[in-house]
Amino acid sequence: MEAILFDFGGTLDTNGIHWSEKFWDLYELFGITVSKCQYEEAYRYSEKLIAERTKPGDDMWTMISNQIQFQFNYLRDSDYYKPNDLPVKDMISYCRWDILKQINRSKRVLQLLKSDYRLGLVSNFTGNLKAVVECLSIDEYFDVIADSHILNIPKPDPRIFMYALKKLKAAPENVFMIGDSYDRDIQPAKSIGCSTIWLDVKSWKTNESTTSADFIIRDLKEVPGIIFNKEKKHEQNTHVT
Ligand SMILES: [Mg+2]
């Protein structure tokens, strides 16, 4: 193995929980009494606005704050939810605490891998992925940061993976891709010859087939073990032959 690629959203920041589910948990925690359907409309609306309005320098906290605000604007304008006092600030603080807790766990995984492999990020993002990883102090781990908006190549287009591999000077057969989306991370990476680890915890949708996943995990912390084991087996096989 030469290099390891990671997805960002839903993978390094939430350990496999899709952001749609993450925000819904937040609503339940803060007693925001809307139905799941109403919430999902608001979530889709906020995703659309985030894609349109995010600026290159926006960090993680600006994005979270905008996203919550856009959702509440939608719920208010749709007459779904309109109390005078919304716990926006407290919700943002909670998200911050929760994300930093997970990022610290992800850092330990990146740290373990960094000494032996080149690492890359491949993400469907909004042109500000660099600012986001800088504010979380994980930029130093990555040799390439592929932001779909900047490259104008969204996953599942395999060319975004090929771009990252070229930057890392790595052949696909020597690369692992790790991500929480079977369709966007696992299938396209497998299609160009990478090995794949699917972080399957709480997905936005269910998948009928999972044959493109070489490994399925429930927690990012399983990643180093899988990669080191695969290397050990490879070494043993080359000794035998
Ligand atoms: Mg993801």
Descriptive overview:
There is one protein chain. This protein has 241 residues and is α/β, with parallel strands linked by helices. The chain folds into 2 domains: 3-16 and 102-240, Rossmann fold (3-Layer(aba) Sandwich); 19-97. Helix content is 51%, strand content 11%. The protein contains 9 helices and 6 strands. The chain has a 6-stranded parallel sheet with strand order 3-2-1-4-5-6, with helices on both faces. Helix 2 (36-53) crosses helix 3 and helix 3 runs antiparallel to helix 4. It is elongated, with a radius of gyration of 19 Å. The model has no long low-confidence stretch (mean pLDDT 95). The protein binds magnesium ion (MG). Magnesium ion (MG) is lined by residues 7, 9-11, 179-181.
